[in-house]
């Protein structure tokens, strides 16, 4: 149990990767503080965590709001007494439009959620993470870092900025005993992608499995990663197993891109 008796705060908790992050951290021995805008989602994931024998604290949070984030910090410390890990998982995908056409307000909104919110939370939690000299922050990024496909420009801008943010924070917080790393998933075989693949299959008159196999054909392992596999990588980064790892970005994509 590499996170035994640790306390991990996770933003952007929902039915996909956010759920897996919470459950896998709990399975690794951590108590978890769950943050999202939707209380129903928080409650559903909290039930799974408590079923594993770990504590789950839910906090309805708007990560773009300073006071809401301060409430998350205060609630976490009041309930658990400490914070050892922070996972910045919340994100927003902007309109998939060419940079030459995208509305500037859409760019600002993407940067606010994907970059500034992560900085806001990390700054607020930094003193608590540094208190015991072994804190860890993980930024959930994206394989959009590795390609320049049309219409993904705004998303890539924000995620590239998030990577730079993580690297700079690693340098700033390292002397205080806090590590900052990044995980960059590609496809994640969860509900949203399954829905999209079913849509593609219906449009083409083929099966969802055929769409999956076509997509996986150019990936080294010939499959798409599951949410728990991304989450297990985050658990590693949070744990003492990665105690000498900071400022790094680990791609988890079954070999779709090499970096």
UniProtKB/TrEMBL annotation:
- According to the lineage, what is the superkingdom? Bacteria
- Where do the TM regions start and end? none
Q: Which InterPro entries match?
A: NAD(P)-bd_dom_sf (IPR036291), SDR_fam (IPR002347)
The record, for Pfam families, names:
adh_short_C2
Family matches, as NCBIfam families:
PRK07890.1 (NF005909)
Quote the protein name from its UniProt record: SDR family oxidoreductase
This protein's species is Actinocorallia aurantiaca
What taxonomic classification does the UniProt entry list for its organism? Bacteria, Bacillati, Actinomycetota, Actinomycetes, Streptosporangiales
């Amino acid at each position: 149990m590499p996170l035994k008796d640790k306390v991990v705060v996770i933003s952007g908790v929902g039915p996909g990767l956010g759920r897996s992050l919470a459950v896998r951290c709990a399975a690794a021995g951590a108590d978890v503080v769950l943050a999202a805008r939707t209380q129903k989602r928080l409650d559903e994931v909290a039930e799974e965590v408590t079923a594993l024998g770990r504590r789950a604290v839910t906090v309805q949070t708007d990560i773009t709001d300073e006071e809401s984030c301060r409430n998350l910090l205060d609630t976490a410390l009041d309930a658990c007494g400490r914070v050892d890990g922070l996972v910045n998982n919340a994100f927003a995908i902007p309109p998939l439009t060419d940079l030459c056409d995208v509305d500037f307000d859409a760019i600002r909104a993407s940067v606010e959620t994907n970059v500034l919110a992560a900085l806001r939370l990390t700054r607020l939690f930094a003193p608590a993470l540094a208190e015991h000299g072994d804190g860890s922050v993980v930024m959930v990024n994206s394989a959009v870092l590795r390609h320049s496909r049309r219409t993904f420009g705004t998303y890539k801008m924000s995620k590239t900025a998030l990577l730079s943010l993580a690297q700079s924070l690693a340098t700033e917080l390292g002397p205080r005993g806090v590590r900052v790393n990044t995980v960059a998933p590609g496809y994640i075989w969860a509900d949203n992608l399954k829905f999209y693949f079913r849509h593609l299959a219906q449009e083409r008159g083929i099966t969802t499995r055929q769409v999956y196999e076509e997509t996986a054909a150019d990936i080294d392992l010939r499959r798409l990663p599951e949410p728990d596999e991304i989450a297990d990588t985050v658990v590693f980064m949070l744990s003492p197993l990665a105690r000498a790892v900071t400022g790094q970005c680990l791609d988890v994509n079954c070999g779709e891109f090499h970096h």
